[in-house]
Design brief:
By secondary structure, this protein is an alpha+beta fold. Helix content is 29%, strand content 44%.
Protein backbone atom coordinates (compact mmCIF):
# COMPACT_ATOMS: atom_id res chain seq x y z
CA UNK A 1 0.00 0.00 0.00
CA UNK A 2 1.03 3.58 -0.61
CA UNK A 3 0.32 6.89 1.07
CA UNK A 4 -3.25 7.95 0.27
CA UNK A 5 -4.56 4.41 -0.28
CA UNK A 6 -7.83 3.55 1.47
CA UNK A 7 -9.09 0.22 2.80
CA UNK A 8 -11.61 -1.24 5.22
CA UNK A 9 -10.46 -3.36 8.14
CA UNK A 10 -12.89 -6.06 9.26
CA UNK A 11 -12.30 -7.53 12.71
CA UNK A 12 -14.21 -9.48 15.31
CA UNK A 13 -13.86 -7.86 18.71
CA UNK A 14 -15.77 -8.68 21.90
CA UNK A 15 -18.13 -10.82 19.86
CA UNK A 16 -18.95 -8.05 17.39
CA UNK A 17 -18.00 -7.73 13.73
CA UNK A 18 -16.52 -4.29 13.14
CA UNK A 19 -15.79 -2.66 9.79
CA UNK A 20 -13.66 0.48 9.93
CA UNK A 21 -12.45 2.52 6.94
CA UNK A 22 -8.80 3.62 7.02
CA UNK A 23 -6.43 5.73 4.98
CA UNK A 24 -2.67 5.18 4.79
CA UNK A 25 -1.41 8.66 5.74
CA UNK A 26 2.34 8.04 5.59
CA UNK A 27 4.64 5.33 4.29
CA UNK A 28 8.40 4.86 4.54
CA UNK A 29 9.12 1.45 2.94
CA UNK A 30 10.63 -1.12 5.32
CA UNK A 31 10.64 1.41 8.16
CA UNK A 32 7.29 2.92 9.14
CA UNK A 33 3.70 3.56 8.12
CA UNK A 34 0.70 5.32 9.63
CA UNK A 35 -3.01 4.69 9.11
CA UNK A 36 -5.92 6.86 10.17
CA UNK A 37 -9.39 5.46 10.89
CA UNK A 38 -11.75 7.64 8.85
CA UNK A 39 -15.10 6.35 10.08
CA UNK A 40 -17.05 4.55 12.77
CA UNK A 41 -16.71 2.75 15.08
CA UNK A 42 -13.19 4.10 15.73
CA UNK A 43 -13.02 7.49 13.98
CA UNK A 44 -9.78 9.45 14.05
CA UNK A 45 -7.66 6.75 15.60
CA UNK A 46 -4.11 6.87 14.27
CA UNK A 47 -2.08 3.65 14.13
CA UNK A 48 1.68 3.97 13.57
CA UNK A 49 3.83 0.90 12.90
CA UNK A 50 7.62 1.17 13.07
CA UNK A 51 10.06 -1.59 12.09
CA UNK A 52 13.58 -1.55 13.50
CA UNK A 53 16.45 -3.93 12.89
CA UNK A 54 17.92 -5.44 16.02
CA UNK A 55 20.52 -8.23 16.04
CA UNK A 56 18.96 -11.28 14.38
CA UNK A 57 15.41 -9.91 14.30
CA UNK A 58 13.08 -7.06 13.54
CA UNK A 59 11.34 -5.10 16.29
CA UNK A 60 7.78 -3.97 15.56
CA UNK A 61 6.45 -1.03 17.56
CA UNK A 62 2.79 -0.07 17.26
CA UNK A 63 1.41 3.17 18.67
CA UNK A 64 -2.32 3.81 18.74
CA UNK A 65 -3.54 7.36 19.33
CA UNK A 66 -7.10 8.57 19.64
CA UNK A 67 -10.06 8.93 21.91
CA UNK A 68 -12.63 6.16 22.13
CA UNK A 69 -16.23 7.17 21.59
CA UNK A 70 -19.66 5.75 22.41
CA UNK A 71 -19.56 2.27 23.89
CA UNK A 72 -15.77 2.20 23.62
CA UNK A 73 -15.42 5.29 25.83
CA UNK A 74 -17.59 3.80 28.55
CA UNK A 75 -15.74 0.50 28.51
CA UNK A 76 -12.21 1.91 28.04
CA UNK A 77 -10.47 -0.12 30.83
CA UNK A 78 -12.11 -3.34 29.64
CA UNK A 79 -11.31 -2.56 26.01
CA UNK A 80 -7.60 -2.16 26.76
CA UNK A 81 -7.40 -5.59 28.41
CA UNK A 82 -9.46 -7.23 25.68
CA UNK A 83 -7.23 -5.73 22.98
CA UNK A 84 -4.15 -7.07 24.71
CA UNK A 85 -5.68 -10.56 24.92
CA UNK A 86 -6.60 -10.45 21.23
CA UNK A 87 -3.50 -8.76 19.83
CA UNK A 88 -0.82 -10.80 21.62
CA UNK A 89 -1.79 -14.12 19.97
CA UNK A 90 -2.16 -12.33 16.60
CA UNK A 91 1.38 -10.95 16.88
CA UNK A 92 2.73 -14.36 17.93
CA UNK A 93 1.12 -15.89 14.83
CA UNK A 94 2.61 -13.16 12.64
CA UNK A 95 6.02 -13.80 14.17
CA UNK A 96 5.71 -17.55 13.49
CA UNK A 97 4.73 -16.91 9.86
CA UNK A 98 7.64 -14.53 9.31
CA UNK A 99 10.13 -16.88 11.00
CA UNK A 100 8.96 -19.72 8.74
CA UNK A 101 9.91 -17.63 5.69
CA UNK A 102 13.57 -17.42 6.74
Amino acid sequence: MREGDAFTAVIKFLGHRLETPYERTSHEPNRRFTELATGDPLPYQRWTYTFEEVPGRTRLTRIVEGEPGGFFKLADPLIERALERQVSPDLATLNDLLEARR
